[in-house]
Write a sequence for this structure.
């Protein structure tokens, strides 16, 4: 049959329709650049930048209302310069991260640089006679602390630790040093106290508070959690919760930096693998920037050494933890946190804790969760 006059022959489908599987990826890429224009300067998107600068896009005649002609040329758009690559990707902080810095800790103190106080000999074998001779000085020290005369109390405590050293005497003097804002002196005395009694709650709590005062939040959390497991008190628990948040915030920053570094590494590997290929987008759209970090673990500084668990946490793992409130609550238990931090510093200690049914139950649930991921 003769074709109707002025009816154009059917047009062949645009080439892009032959590659419909790429349309979704192209739209995702365009949306991503629209939301974050500076991405156009990423090396992986140089092909798109060149395209926009040099390719002339024809506008269909029937599309009278199209506003493509009103779009500015790329040269007229104020694009931020590409950021220089950091020497250590794990230390990089984005502007967003810098603008969300932690709230200042008003409890921080300037580290004291005084010469070490007289420490006595913690290894000395103390007799009953020695304890009786030191007892009056110990009582005087306690009275002076109650009166607020901390300097004089330290003098009396020094008499005690040189005559009859004990964990309580060192911990008492440490507490006085900390009240005088001498955290390093307090830490030295707590170390001596814990060498005599590793379960001294007073020394653990005092050293934890001293570590917090100099910003050593992970060390503070470990000591405070152990001290609370021995002898719980509400005032120390408030400090423990505070340093838990600080540790969590620090871990979140580390995870964000690690995720970004891994994304960059994946993109670089994908780009290298796709070189020479003429189809698809470079790297298969892998590793888009800005994926952010995972939420914290409620104060747990790391999961190292957990019965074969991976040291890092896959993106889906935290979501599983957040969907398990019972497990998250168990992980907040000071006893469990102290055990986990002990195992982190010495993985061989895991065996002794696994003998505790309460600890073993939580540990096995965590291990099962990691295995399921």
């Amino acid at each position: 049959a003769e074709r109707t006059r002025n009816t154009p022959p059917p047009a062949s489908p645009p080439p892009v329709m032959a590659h419909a599987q790429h349309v979704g990826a192209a739209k995702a890429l365009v949306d991503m650049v629209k939301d974050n224009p500076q991405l156009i300067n990423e090396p992986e998107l140089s092909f798109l930048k060149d395209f926009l600068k040099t390719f002339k896009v024809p506008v269909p005649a029937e599309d009278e209302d199209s506003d493509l002609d009103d779009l500015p040329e790329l040269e007229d758009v104020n694009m931020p310069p590409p950021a220089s690559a950091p020497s250590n990707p794990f230390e990089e902080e984005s502007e967003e991260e810098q603008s969300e810095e932690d709230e200042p800790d008003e409890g921080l103190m300037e580290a004291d640089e005084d010469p070490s106080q007289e420490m006595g000999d913690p290894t000395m074998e103390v007799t009953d006679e020695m304890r009786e001779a030191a007892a009056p000085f110990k009582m005087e020290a306690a009275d002076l602390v109650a009166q607020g005369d901390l300097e004089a109390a330290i003098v009396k405590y020094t008499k005690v630790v040189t005559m009859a050293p004990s964990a309580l005497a060192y911990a008492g003097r440490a507490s006085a040093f900390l009240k005088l804002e001498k955290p390093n002196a307090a830490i030295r005395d707590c170390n001596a106290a814990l060498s005599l009694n590793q379960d001294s709650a007073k020394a653990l709590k005092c050293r934890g508070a001293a570590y917090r005062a100099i910003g050593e939040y992970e060390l503070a959390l470990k000591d405070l959690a152990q001290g609370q497991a021995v002898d719980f008190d509400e005032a120390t628990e408030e400090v423990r919760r505070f340093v838990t948040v600080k540790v969590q915030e620090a871990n979140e920053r580390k995870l964000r930096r690690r995720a970004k570094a891994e994304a960059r590494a994946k993109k670089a590997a994908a780009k290298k693998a796709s070189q020479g290929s003429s189809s698809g987008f470079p790297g298969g759209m892998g590793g888009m920037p800005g994926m952010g970090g995972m939420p914290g673990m409620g104060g747990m500084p790391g999961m190292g050494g957990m019965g074969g668990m991976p040291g890092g946490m896959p993106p889906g793992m935290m979501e599983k933890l957040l969907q398990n409130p019972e497990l998250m609550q168990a992980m907040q238990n000071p006893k469990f946190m102290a055990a986990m931090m002990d195992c982190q510093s010495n993985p061989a200690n895991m065996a002794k804790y696994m003998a505790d049914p309460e600890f073993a139950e939580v540990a096995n649930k965590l291990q099962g969760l990691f295995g399921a991921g």
